[in-house]
Design goal:
Layout (H helix, E strand, L loop, with lengths): L16 E5 L4 H12 L3 E8 L17 H14 L3 E5 L1 H17 L6 H20 L4 E3 L4 E5 L5 E5 L16 H4 L2 E2 L9 H10 L21 H9 L4 E4 L5 E5 L14 E2 L10 E6 L4 E5 L5 E12 L8 E6 L7 E8 L2 E11 L6 E6 L2 E13 L7
């Protein structure tokens, strides 16, 4: 069965003690309000994730500013729930920011939102909530928790596929799902309708812009952020035969599939655009080539996280490879080191460090971190 609003916990069907993570945005505010309206004992908490928060946002960029904290507090006051600010800045720096920098330094492309959900919201926050006697953590994510007849939990896509965020929640295990509440996941409403609901509830965040990009890089300049952390490291841009085409100030500033921002003086012989095919942190070299060299037929992935019982044999699934990417049909097989995934048809622009999330219909089976890819053209194999 699916509980309306996905309120699950150790005392299903009864009044739960719920800790609502309130970012200061409209989604988390409406989620907290719905949980309270459903009769649960809700307490709001804003996570202070920056050691030196800015006073105000820059448009829709960034989060965790002092303005966001105040917006969350005002929303909690309107809802009529207690509110606290918890300082998790040091844990966030270690588990999310430093991991992000280290992954780029190693030539990989991480997704910090998955790492935050795994390490912060449903590890550090959930563990603290359970220690304080709460039954569940509530967030404004668009996803659905289904409770089976045997009491086990499953994570499913949100009813509205356009807003589905199950990809970034694919790192949650069954224990964490048992204490997760996503009140927005089973509502077929547009974002405008969520904002209209916030207005009806007199929540001042009703028209606040959504945050986007990487929350701890408020100006959106990822390359500049990495340059400040990793410094300048000049290297070569080469073609598939190793011929030098240009230079760069740091291989960390590139991602697989990137087309723009490369200082290449020599045009391709066929006149077609060239894309980043490979990033080698050892030699500090970026390899570029034609678009078709990006076609990936299979991948291996490590550090699997299963949303329930792990699969024991090869099976047919769909896979999502980006937060807003499309499902693609695959065959996936667990291995001693993680997972091997073969695509029915080649897919393009997959980078090590990204997450592959497997689905069985709408159910999230689990996720893993991409380690290597196999390309259709031998010269492009990584």
């Amino acid at each position: 069965m699916t509980y309306p609003g996905a309120p699950t916990g150790p005392r299903d069907g009864s009044r739960l003690r719920v800790l609502a993570a309130m970012s200061g945005g409209v989604d988390s505010a409406v989620a907290a309000a719905r949980a309270a309206e459903a009769g649960h004992d809700v307490t709001g908490v804003h996570l202070a994730l920056s050691a030196n928060p800015q006073s105000f946002r820059t448009g829709a960029r960034g989060c965790c500013t002092l303005e966001d904290s105040r917006d969350a507090r005002r929303a909690a006051d309107v809802i009529g729930i207690p509110f606290y600010v918890w300082d998790l800045a040091e844990r966030f720096r270690e588990d999310v920011v430093e991991d992000f920098v280290a992954e780029y330094a190693a030539g990989r492309t991480p997704n910090p939102c998955l790492r935050c959900n795994e390490k912060i919201k449903f590890s550090a926050l959930l563990d603290k909530a359970l220690a304080l006697g709460f039954d569940a953590v509530c967030t404004g994510h668009y996803a659905t928790v289904v409770v089976r007849d045997d009491g086990s939990r499953e994570l499913h896509r949100a009813d509205d596929a356009a807003k589905d965020q199950s990809y970034v929640l694919g790192v949650l295990d069954e224990r964490q799902l048992a204490h997760a509440m996503f009140p927005l996941g089973d509502t077929l409403t547009t974002k405008d309708e969520i904002r209209a609901e916030a207005e009806r509830r007199d929540l001042a965040v009703a028209r606040k812009p959504d945050s986007h990009d990487i929350c701890f890089i408020a100006d959106g300049d990822t390359q500049g952020f990495l340059a400040r952390r990793l410094g300048t490291a000049e290297g070569d841009i080469v073609d598939e035969d190793g011929n030098r085409l240009g230079g760069h100030d740091g291989a960390y500033g590139f991602t697989i599939g990137q087309r723009k921002g490369m200082r290449i003086g020599t045009p391709a012989a066929d006149g077609r655009p060239r894309y980043v095919l490979d990033i080698s942190p050892v030699t500090n070299t970026v390899t570029v080539g034609p678009a078709e060299a990006l076609d990936v037929t299979a991948l291996t992935a490590i550090r699997p996280r299963w949303c329930g019982t792990p699969p024991t044999a090869a099976g047919r699934y769909t896979a999502q490879l980006r937060a807003h990417g499309e499902d693609v049909p695959v065959t996936a097989e667990p291995t001693p080191d993680g997972l091997h995934v073969t695509f029915d048809a080649p897919v393009r622009g997959i980078a090590p460090g990204q997450a592959v999330v497997l689905y069985d219909g709408t159910r999230v089976v689990g996720s893993a971190t991409i380690a290597t890819t196999r390309r259709r053209t031998p010269a492009g194999t990584v």
